[in-house]
Amino acid sequence: MDKDGLTKLTASGRFIPGIDNSCDRWRERCPVTSRCLTFAMSNEPCVDRDSSDLQNTAFWRHLTESLQLAADLLRERAAELGVDLDSVTCEELAEEEKRTEEARNHECSLLAKRYAEMVAEWFDGRMAEGESAGRAGGGLSLQEAREVIRWYQHQIYIKILRAIRSDSEDQTEIADEIPADSSVQAKVALIGIDRSIAAWGVTRKHLRDQDDGILDLMVHLDRLRGAVEGVFPHARSLVRPGFEEIDLTSS
Fold first, then answer.
1. What are the structural domain ranges in the chain?
2. Which SS3 state, helix, strand or coil, does residue 108 take?
3. Model confidence over 13-33: pLDDT tens digits?
4. pLDDT score of 54 more than 80
5. pTM higher than 0.85 for the full model?
6. Residue pair 43/28 in contact by the 8 Å Cβ criterion
7. Domain 90-231 belongs to what topology?
């Protein structure tokens, strides 16, 4: 895709600006890929998608071309906004690192990181990844619950870290309909926590003999959820364009 092609896509009115910044990156489960520019670009038939070798020449050539295109567009946009991309100082970089370190040591980040470790320990010590079971009462299967747990295992920490990191900066709303990045990331983290708790509940129905360990994980997640909600009290009510418009309870 060349720059003209990308410009035509962005001007089509089909996509929601920044929607990929509000998601959990799980494309196979995403209900709004038709509104996502990132998804549309990634599905352009530029390489042999039957190939499992991601290090082939065609793939890396395309990636290099995409990087150059992104750099050109970034500089054009920066020029329009009067932003000097080369003006970052050593002092600013040091301040960035300081804020990042403070975010890593925040209570919510530490709880989220510990949860990821607990999940790894549970799977290593309690259950083989290849274990399977039927659906519990017509709901999710054990395998489906495991997929949810594994998807959010590390992402919860990443989203919380970004939320806290963003919250430490001066937040300037670009427009009324665009919320602060910290609130967006906190909401995505909370959704991941909710879904993980539900998935552990399904797992518990299948594996009654491992009840204590699963309950410990659920309690830890609930504590993490409360901590995040305390730091970001408005995250729950935030409306992400394209996502909260969907009624997931309808058949």
1. 3-81, 90-231
2. helix
3. 778 877 777 777 777 777 777
4. no
5. no
6. no
7. de novo design (two linked rop proteins) (1.20.1440)
